[in-house]
Design goal:
Distance between the termini: 73 Å
Strand order of the largest sheet: 7-8-12-10-11
Strand content: 15-25%
Number of helices: 11
Order of helices and strands: EHEEEHEEEEHEHHHEEHEEEHEEHHH
CATH class of the largest domain: Alpha Beta
Radius of gyration: 25 Å
Low-confidence stretches: 267-275, 284-288, 296-329, 331-343
Shape: globular
């Protein structure tokens, strides 16, 4: 482990006078082998802004850390004076169940946020790609799992954001309504920015209701070509999957898993799903890929762990047929028919 810091006594003294808890760094605080000089642990946006203003004045290099699950993604820092630990911003600020939105601090873990939302029958449809991932880290890494197939990525679910620039200025972007089209969409700009544009402190998400039933259907394939053909059949089939994942374990046998959600129907509970790949591979009932099995409602031992797929009629994708032809004059408003043809 190497130390690459230009932290002066004046800068350290200024940081210790703030309301934020500041301590000396340890070996556990190193980022890709680079040890910081100090670690600051703010608990709200104002404290983050105060710390960054001091760092900007003394020209200190700062790296923000949430749960630390993706801290090594990207290039290692050339210099690291202060590690900003935002795991203390761990409050679910607001949950407006009627509006299907939630406001959470950057340090809230995705699993804990979904636990709180689940009490009201709602969810943030974002996979916990790494155990212990936080809201801020998921946004800055742009990390999304298999559920992006139906409900989109974290970029699509993010509607509002509060972040602090490197000079300590607090910026509020987006809003708390789903249909917000005023100004530039700065929220999406910060997704995947790896903390280079600012430190995320608070996020507003749009939510989805929890499904009444969930089933994970898995199938083993011998060749990658067979797995690809099977995924195409699943995605373009009548039953719309919420997520599809291909897993290749150490034994080399490919496993295709599809997450199906909908309403349970006792009349079709004995419906059987396809049991073979296009090449004749047998279905696998004993294991599921990691991300799809991380869902609480699809865990082993729960009623949702059975493999029967929901009835196709309840999850069928609606297909609309568009015909390009002129509308009859009788259906055109009177004032429209009076417009001269030259216009």
């Amino acid at each position: 482990m190497s130390v690459a810091t230009a932290l002066s006594r004046d800068a350290a003294a200024a940081l210790r006078t703030t309301a934020t808890a500041v301590r000396d760094a340890t070996a556990a605080d190193a980022v890709d082998g680079i040890a910081p000089g100090l670690v600051a642990s703010p608990t709200n946006t104002d404290q983050v802004a105060e710390v960054l203003r001091i760092c900007a004045h003394h020209r200190l290099a700062v790296v923000a850390r949430g749960g630390g699950t993706k801290i090594s993604w990207g290039s290692p820092p050339l210099r690291l004076d202060l590690l900003l630990d935002v795991s203390g911003l761990d409050r679910v600020v607001e949950h407006a169940a009627g509006d299907l939105i939630a406001v959470a601090g950057a340090g809230v873990r995705i699993a804990e946020l979904n636990r709180v939302l689940g009490l009201a029958g709602q969810q943030l449809a974002v996979d916990e790609t790494v155990a212990g991932a936080t809201v801020g880290g998921t946004i800055c890494a742009g990390a999304s799992g298999p559920q992006r197939l139906l409900r989109g990525t974290v970029r699509d679910l993010l509607i509002g954001l509060t972040f602090v620039r490197s000079d300590g200025k607090v910026v509020h972007a987006g809003g708390r309504v789903v249909k917000n089209v005023a100004g530039y969409d700065v929220c999406k700009l910060l997704v995947g920015s790896a903390g280079t544009l600012g430190v995320v402190t608070e996020a507003v998400f749009r939510l989805h209701p929890l499904p009444a039933a969930r089933r994970v259907v898995t199938m083993a394939c011998d060749r990658p070509e067979d797995a690809g053909a099977l995924v195409a059949r699943i995605v373009h089939g009548q039953t719309v999957p919420s997520a599809v994942e291909i897993d290749c374990p150490d034994d080399g046998q490919l496993v295709v898993a599809a997450l199906l959600e909908g309403s349970p129907d006792p009349a079709t509970s004995s419906a059987r799903s396809p049991t073979r790949c296009p090449s004749g591979g047998a279905a696998t009932r004993g294991r599921r890929p990691t991300l799809l099995s991380s869902s609480p409602s699809a865990s082993a031992g729960s009623p949702a762990s059975s493999r029967a797929a929901p009835p196709p009629g309840r999850m069928a994708r609606r297909r609309c047929r568009c015909v390009d032809r002129p509308a009859p004059a009788s259906s055109t408003p009177r004032h429209t028919r009076r417009i001269p043809p030259s216009i």
